[in-house]
Amino acid sequence: MRIGSTLKWVGMTLAGLTAAVSSSAFANAKVETLGGINVTSGTTHSFNIGGLLQMDQSMFAGSADDKQNQFPNSANIRRARVSLGGNVGEHWSYFFRYDFKPNTIHRALVTYTNKHHHANVTVGQQQTLFSMENIADSGNLLFIERALPTVAFSPADGLGISANIAIEDMFTVSGNIMTPAYNQTAAQSGDVGKSDRVAEVLRVTFSPVHNEEVTYHLGVSGYNQRVNNTISGAPTGTGVEFNTYPEAYGRTPGYILDTGVMRARRVDAYGYEAAAIWGPALLQAEYIKSGVKRHDNWSPAGQGGTAKFHGWQVAGAYMLTGESHLYDFGLGIINRPKSMQEYGAWEVAARYSFANLNNKDIAGAVAHDTTLGVNWYVNQNVSFAANYVRVDQHPNRSTGVERRTLDIFGLRAQVAW
């Protein structure tokens, strides 16, 4: 579907919904707007329209070759999303989100919730419940972009079923059974004539304290998927590939780490996470390790077995105006703070991240990123961010490219409704 016809379809849909909301059929409904539109009828039925718009400017300082070929200074609409959602009865809800960048259905969900047992089950197009930063909504990120290991190793979205349950107001257990290709499109997962390979995801969190002032969080998650990429014993398709960009995104990603294509039988990943909130102070850390079980007979130089990669990050932030970040116990994630000042909320943040995509015959390189950030939350809908990123990339072992550094300055204007 071309973007022009897509815009026309979405515009007509929203116009029709707006007209319907204002009609006499909703005379007894309550309509509220805090940027979006929320319509409620009683306690069991509702409908809302929301969205997210992120506009970025990225400026790169490096060698002339870097700027001309990988990292040109550029403005970019990073995300432009429109969402529809609501409740249809005591237990059922739905959510649909379309992203005009890159022009695709981002979420399409139907959820059953049992509030008595603090549990829910969701079917549809969804994210994999792996890694705290990966699960966090893109409108609630502490920095403009996610950290190196999160981008490199987190599984792609896909179609499937997920479940989540809270236990004793301390533990959550969640997981997916779904059919994504690991960091690939479906067409790249090998022989498209074969049945989809099911992926399994499991995440457990523990939060003994979570209130408006203090929160402690620990979590562990795991992912496993077999890969379709053989026909009669010979490799086909594009296999599995890990890569990541330098925590800044211009017109194109500009990958600094890349394993290249790996002919794989199975991919797995394990993540460990910790976070704490003390009033205006926030600290969080994650470590992710991934293994790719390769075909022994179809690896470079006959080197098969499992290739292993890893990365980690540590981040901290402080609210200069005294607010606290909000913790979502059910999802086990940290959301943006609620502004209490007339002039909004101000925050400073810092992060150090590392990813290593070198192992055996795979020469994907190593990178260390240091990011400093300032966030201004004008209100619950509008925010601005400025990030400075220092990239230190170690050489690619197969090419012997010299070590290089990049200095990146990024700006973001965001509206969420």
Notes on the protein architecture:
The chain is mainly beta and 417 residues long. It has a single domain, classed as Porin, CATH 2.40.160.10. Helices cover 8% and strands 54% of the residues. It has 4 helices and 24 strands. The longest helix has 19 residues.
CATH class: Mainly Beta
On the 0-100 scale, what is the average pLDDT? 84
Tell me the strand percentage band: over 45%
How many strand elements?
24
CATH homolog superfamily: Porin
Total tally of structural domains: 1
What tags apply to this protein structure?
globular; Porin; 417 residues; mainly beta; 24 strands; single chain
Question: What's this, in brief?
Answer:
The chain has 417 residues and is mainly beta. It is 8% helix and 54% strand.
SSE layout and pairing:
Blueprint: H1 3-21, E1 30-32, E2 37-41, E3 45-61, H2 64-69, E4 74-88, E5 92-99, E6 104-114, E7 119-126, H3 132-135, H4 148-153, E8 158-167, E9 171-178, E10 199-210, E11 214-226, E12 230-231, E13 234-235, E14 243-244, E15 257-258, E16 264-278, E17 281-294, E18 305-319, E19 326-328, E20 333-335, E21 345-359, E22 362-377, E23 382-393, E24 404-416
Antiparallel strand pairs: 1-2, 2-3, 3-4, 3-24, 4-5, 5-6, 6-7, 7-8, 8-9, 9-10, 10-11, 11-16, 12-13, 14-15, 16-17, 17-18, 18-21, 19-20, 21-22, 22-23, 23-24
